[in-house]
Amino acid sequence: MPFNDYETDATELLETYDFLMKYIVIGEAGTGKSCLLHHFTHNSFKDHSQHTIGVEFSSRTIRLGEKRIKLQLWDTAGQERFRSVTRSYYRGAAGAILVYDITKLSLIASSFPSSRESFQKLSRWLADARALASSHLVVVLVGNKSDREEEREVEWAEASRWAAENDVHFLEASSLTGDNVEAPFMLAARSILLSIESGALDPEKAGSGVSYGDRALRRVNSSSRLSFGSLSRGQRRPVKLKVKNWVPGSQCC
Amino acid sequence: MSLSQTPSSSSVNERKTSWTFQARNPVSLRLYKVLGTTFDDEATRESLATLSELYAKSVTAKGKETQRIDTEEDGDDETSAKVDGPFFVEGVPGESAARARKNLRRDMEMKLTEGSQHFLKVLSEVDEKLVALQTHVAAMRTSCDEAEKQLQLTDEASKSLLERAGNLREERQEVEVKKSIVSLFLSRFTLNEEETEAMVSRDVPVGKRFFDAMDKTERIREDCRVLMAGEEGPTKAGLDIMTSTSSHLEQSYEKIFRWCSHEFLQIGRDSQLEVSVTMREAVRRLRKRPELLTEALTSLSQTRQNTLQTSFLNALTRGGPSGLPRPIELHAHDPMRYIGDMLAWVHQAIAAEREFLEGLFGLKSDRRMVGSVRAFGEKPSEEEEWIRELMDLAVGRLCVPMKIRVQQTIKSQESSITSYRIVNLLQFYLHTMQNTIGKDAILSKALEELTEMAYKSFYDSIEAQCRGLLRAGLELDDSSVTPPIPILDHAQVLREIMSVYQSSILEDASTSDQIAGFRKIADVMVNPAVEMCIISAEEKKKVRHKWDMEVFVLNCLTYLLSVLEPFDFTSEAQKSIQGILDTRVEQLTDDHYHNIMVDAGLDEVATTCEKHDNSEPLSHIPSTEPSQLQIALGNFSQWLSGPEVVHSTRLSSLSLQRLHNKIHHTALTRMAKAYEMICEQVRRKENRYEAASTLLGSERPFGQVALLWQIFGLREDGL
Ligand SMILES: Nc1nc2c(ncn2[C@@H]2O[C@H](COP(=O)(O)OP(=O)(O)OP(=O)(O)O)[C@@H](O)[C@H]2O)c(=O)[nH]1
Ligand SMILES: [Mg+2]
């Protein structure tokens, strides 16, 4: 079976990529970071999720227009006692998925949610990430557990305002139903690609959290200029997908 | 014809009328028949035409001069001219017709003769021709016979020829079949030029064409082996094929090896790793030549080791090309961040390396996440073994620079709390790595060593702290009985260490594991503190007799206990302190009881009563003779009205109010019991007190024990 592999497009899809991006997934304990990531990489809800100990790694290659992007995903523990460990993994991350639980205002706000200090805990996560990760860090705020609408404590509009004020992307998702689970990762990738396109971000530089993959390098060699025009137009060539070979993500260790 | 018709038509009518009369008359019948004959039929007309023609011709032939007139006349009256043609030469019309009628017979006979003569002449000619034809036919027959004979001969001759041709055809078919078999065989058992080139030549890149050729070679060899295993045994052709394919195959493996080595050198130098499909296929094939694979992978490993080490050193000392992210060493002053960043870097490198190696060996990732437990017990697959070994070597190289730095950091720590934090950080990574890359991995071993070292350094530091504590002793001038500053400081450190420990406990750790994990620290830190309190208090007591050592010790012990209490895993230490505390409380209670008995003036009386052996009446013993007893009871009565009954000044120095109450109440209870005993003794006849009731009733509580309980605010059952 591996013998046939080297011809098929599907395999190529898995093997090569244009960019490699490092993401961190952060936020208070129990907000559903591991579940969100699990749904993104395994396409299913993670039952009986335990608190993450330290950090866990997984990866998945996504397609954006004609670009293939491999995401290195670092799921961090939200518990305070792991803060000193997890902070070391922020180093050089290109994207951060900041997760909160829409049913628990107490997890993001101080004791007086109506005061100006609201979302103070989120601000702390954000400040930490901005201080330690890549200087071009793209942050996506994710209000998780959107399936529990009846228990909602954090209003969409409020979170959205906070996101706008803090210059981060925002959306709500459910790791249970899978609703909007891919969007934050795609959104961050798109945003990072755009800043590469605009020249603000240089993948050649270490610490940017992004680097060129083999595919992109090959193209650079031949044309010496990268164009992302295809990104917006999204004209893709049809790909034969061997479904049995296609795993939405792969892990290490 | 028209001439005769006109009269006939009229006569028909006539005849019809007379038909019945003349019907039997043969002449009339004959006549009628003649008359009824009509000459207007085709044959009659034709013969008449012939006749007229004949005559016309004969005239023309006689006189040429009349021809012109004849034609003129023709134009004038066609009918008459035609009817009269032969006889109508000149002069009078009807002359020629008459002449014709006259000569018709003769003319006809003449014509007939003429015709016969002509016929004869022609027939003789025909006869002549027929004779000639006969000769020809005869000749032809001879020729035909000849031909037939010839044909017969040919036929015979060609029959054998045909036979031969048939045979040849068959042979040709056989040959054809053989040929296709041979070409099939050749295509199946030999490589064509292109394939050989693909395998051997450096110009054909390692890729699909190359791999296809290799596959074919393998197939040939396989088929060949099957063939040679047949009854005839190895054939020469078979052996030849095996030899030539073997050489090609070896060359192709060499080619893969060279290619891999080259590629490995390239990708080995990259910090970002990607495995192409071709590379994975190449590695998969090379596994059939373990020595080549080993060699290639060894060089890969070498490159990877160097590359990783270089990137690690860069991250440590230089940071990114533009200084971002900052070099890790920039935070060397912050030991937790410094060590944490280093280990996180290594961890991330491992993740990338693992993905690379899994890709290289075509291992489908088991979707395990870093940090989650990997079973190392079962026998690993060959690929897994490779991956582990390569990973181990690559990451192992990082251990040297990492170890040096961690060791330096450990050594330079002065605070035992930081030391302990480092211990925990290292232990966390030790745990993670053991689960991720195995217990025997170089990095795991290094972390084990470092953790041990950090532990040692931590224990050294807390032990030193404890020695200092013992050495410090107590301030002799200090009359206070509260825990001294060194103990407070020590407890503060202990408290922080405990909370660090608390945060390091894994959710699923059992209580006994939690206790065991802290036992050593408790042994080192708690016991000496207890010891210090007791020993140095005793030392101080020797110098300052008035200083209340007992209360001091109790205060220290309860304080230490209160420090430990929030942490469940210190239950053992708590128990041991509690044990000491209980004994001490008992001692203090005894002491306190004795003191209040003395203060109340009952001590001597009570002691005498207790020791009394009935050898002589109590009233005869000096210390309990009635006058003495009276004084004692009087003192007691006075004491009962003093403040000491409710509140002991001495015990109020106990920091724990609960303890104060407990000790004091126990002492009072015993006092009440002692008073009761005294009363009983006094009332006994054998003790010969006169007016015992009066004696007892003269002072409070008037010999009524129940009243005493009331005064004490206690109940007899001790509640
Ligand atoms: N209803 C609902 N429950 C969710 C969702 N996502 C996660 N959960 C639940 O939330 C709990 C915590 O999820 P985790 O993913 O383990 O949380 P975490 O953020 O990784 O926590 P730490 O690892 O301790 O930082 C689990 O019991 C999940 O079942 C969601 O979208 N909807
Ligand atoms: Mg988690």
Topology:
The complex is a heterodimer of chains A (253) and B (719).
Chain A: H1 2-5, H2 9-15, E1 19-26, H3 33-42, E2 55-64, E3 67-76, H4 83-86, E4 95-101, H5 120-132, E5 138-144, H6 156-165, E6 169-172, H7 183-197, E7 210-212, H8 214-223, H9 229-233, E8 250-251
Parallel strand pairs in A: 1-3, 1-4, 4-5, 5-6
Antiparallel strand pairs in A: 1-7, 2-3, 2-8
Chain B: H1 2-22, H2 26-36, H3 42-62, H4 67-76, H5 78-84, H6 95-189, H7 193-200, H8 208-228, H9 236-269, H10 277-286, H11 290-317, H12 335-360, H13 382-411, H14 416-437, H15 442-472, H16 485-504, H17 511-543, H18 549-564, H19 571-600, H20 603-611, H21 626-641, H22 657-683, H23 692-697, H24 705-712
The complex binds guanosine-5'-triphosphate and magnesium ion.
Structural overview:
The complex is a heterodimer of chains A (253) and B (719). Chain A is α/β, with parallel strands linked by helices. Chain A is 31% helix and 20% strand. In chain A, β4, α5 and β5 form a beta-alpha-beta unit. Chain A is built from 9 helices and 8 strands. Chain A starts with a helix and ends with a strand. In chain A, strands 1, 2, 3, 4, 5, 6, 7 and 8 form an 8-stranded mixed sheet that branches. The longest helix of chain A is centred in the last third of the chain and has 15 residues. Chain A has one domain: Rossmann fold. Among the domains of chain B are: 119 residues, no CATH class; 181 residues, no CATH class; 91 residues; 112 residues, no CATH class. Chain B has 719 residues and is mainly α. The complex binds guanosine-5'-triphosphate and magnesium ion. The site of guanosine-5'-triphosphate (GTP) has 20 residues of chain A, from α3.
Quick summary:
The complex is a heterodimer of chains A (253) and B (719). Chain A is of the alpha/beta class and 253 residues long. Chain A contains nine helices and eight strands.
The count of DSSP E runs of length 2 or more, i.e. the number of strands of chain B, is 0
Summarize the main sheet of chain B.
none
> Would you report the number of β strands of chain A?
8
Count of helical segments of chain B? 24
- What best-fitting shape of chain A do the alpha-carbon axes yield? globular
What order do the helices and strands of chain B follow?
A: HHHHHHHHHHHHHHHHHHHHHHHH
- Which stretches of chain B are poorly predicted, pLDDT < 50 over at least 5 residues? 1-12, 64-88, 366-373
Q: Remind me, CATH topology of chain A?
A: Rossmann fold
CATH superfamily of chain A: P-loop containing nucleotide triphosphate hydrolases
Protein chain pair with the most extensive contact, residues per chain: A-B, 51 and 58 residues
> Into how many domains do the coordinates of chain A divide?
1
The radius of gyration of chain B is 76 Å
Major sheet description of chain A: 8 strands, mixed
**Uncertain runs of chain A:** 1-14, 218-253
Helix content of chain A: 25-40%
Terminal-residue CA separation of chain B: 185 Å
Q: Which percent range fits the helix content of chain B?
A: over 70%
Can you give the mean pLDDT of chain B? 84
